[in-house]
Amino acid sequence: MKIIKKAKERTAADNRELRNTVQAIIDNVCADGDRALKEYSNKFDDYVRGELRVSRHEIDAAYEKMSPQDIEDLKAAKANIEAFAKAQRGTMTELENFSPQPGIYLGHKVIPVSSCCCYVPGGSYPLYSTALMLITPAKVAGVKRVAACAPVVHGTGDIHYKTLVAMDLAGADEIYAVGGAQAIAAFAYGTQTIKPVDMIVGPGNKFVAEAKRQCYGQIGIDFIAGPSEVLVIADTCADPKVLAADLLAQCEHDPNAKAFLLSTDETLAIETIAAVEKELETLDTAGIARRSWDDYGEVVVLDSLDEAVETANNYAPEHLEVNIAKPEQIINKLVNYGSLFIGGNTAEVFGDYASGTNHTLPTVKASRYTGGVWVGTFLKVCTNQWMTPEASRRIAPLVNRMAKGEGLSGHALAAERRF
Predict the structure, then answer these.
(1) Per-residue pLDDT tens for 251-268?
(2) Where does the chain bind NAD(+) (predicted)?
(3) Is 227-368 assigned to CATH 3.40.50.1980?
(4) CATH class of the structural domain 16-221
(5) Residue 68, class by beta-carbon neighbours within 10 Å (0-12 exposed, 13-18 middle, 19+ buried)?
(6) Per the annotation, does 57 bind a ligand?
(7) What is the pTM of this model?
């Protein structure tokens, strides 16, 4: 292994101040409801809305600002996302009357959660694609009440019009102009205007992530997401300019985003660094991308593809690109990633917007134990069972003995009553 460009170490900073700040926001929203939300809107957004819920009139006005092409693009992207979500839903089948022994019948039902909130971040950019990614699979899953929220454009009191249209096209039942940790608290505990939900999904800044962490248990969440990441495995067949574009596509998200290149060829690695520097000269978002690349960009030359696989699995990235001549050589060896992009034709940004897979993915090594948001995020697999009288009498002595062994006489008695 040879490190050509090394990233800064991410330190395990003490987040006590963040935890305390978010806890205070949650407590305030629980105590004062809508009043607290409007106070935070005034403080952070420089605007106080009369109504937190977005009206049909506002949604229609947002459509008026869209070009026909903009609307068609959103519809085309949604169609692919919806089609894939439906295909995924089709793989989740119910199980009925499985019998481990005569007279005992087991099964499970696949049940959608009753309500969810899809949190769409608004920070630096209007991330309307995230509205499609969150709301569409929730609707396909069959969630009866799909609420959506997003921060307003600073000083206006309005959600960005493209985000608002995307929320509507995706099928949101309710839309609220509220963001930040206070939005998470509102949907977790409820206010005078906002009815609480069963689950909250979606990315956000560190305050949103911490609020989701603190509210977990009161509500379900997808996962706690951090800064965006991409890891690219490349060999001599890759184009340095393409690699540079893919790396910087992640860097422009956030100064804390990470772009990581693993190459089996040192010349390619050096040429890619040069291509990144050249692209940064003209990139509109170079202010953010430069900071991310300088601080967290990393380029490593490895002796073999097997070493690249081991490194990638240890890193467990959000996005993993395999840009090599024969991807099939290593695909089955890769086990830790949020989403996998196979071959040089498959840009990670295609998945960000329109190919159909979800872009709401685990970061900071969470892909070791979870995948991204998908239709199954909104579904519960709940078991059931029934028995014949004969089977009940047959299994009851076994359960009676096991319960007595644990010292649980009430359990033992409940079994004994069956025989």
Answers:
(1) 999 899 999 999 999 999
(2) 119, 182, 205
(3) yes
(4) alpha beta
(5) exposed
(6) no
(7) 0.94
